[in-house]
Amino acid sequence: MPQAEAAKAPDLAMARLGQGFVWQDLSVGQCFRTFKRTVTETDLVNFIGVTGMLEAIFIEEGYEGGAMPGRPVPGALTYCLIEGLILQTMIQGTGLAMLELQQKIFAPVVVGDTVQAVVEVTEIRPTSRSGRAVVASRIDVWNQKNVLVMSYTAKRLLAGRAPAGD
């Protein structure tokens, strides 16, 4: 165990592990790939339970009125899983608000699919307040077969570095 005098106390000047990007660290055209996430039966059951999306295709295994094989999941669940991956990395501690969202779903996601996203920064517009900026991005969500399952655009309010002297 290190001696007390050798230990370093937390200091606000130290870089924080897991801290997201401030808008000044981003540029239009910059792209990122998220981690992958496999959708589980537990994800589906918990999501439909908490949201009340108790539609037969989500709650009944092998629903005879279903239009496809497998156990489909709500598009909202796919979106939420990807947003969780983005939040945990790109905007952790710097994302201030989701301002606008437009979404298109192209293909189903079923339990057992693995999804990931490509995030492209499409616009950065600094605001006049507190060094913040509105950052727009396009998020394309792909399954394990490289099929585009969802695409959405998002405008978020992101924090910036404090100006010198603040």
TrEMBL record:
Gene3D superfamilies tied to this protein: Hotdog Thioesterase
InterPro entries documented for this protein: HotDog_dom_sf, MCH/BMMD
Residues that span the membrane, as ranges: none
Protein's UniProt name: MaoC family dehydratase N-terminal domain-containing protein
Natural source organism: Acidovorax bellezanensis
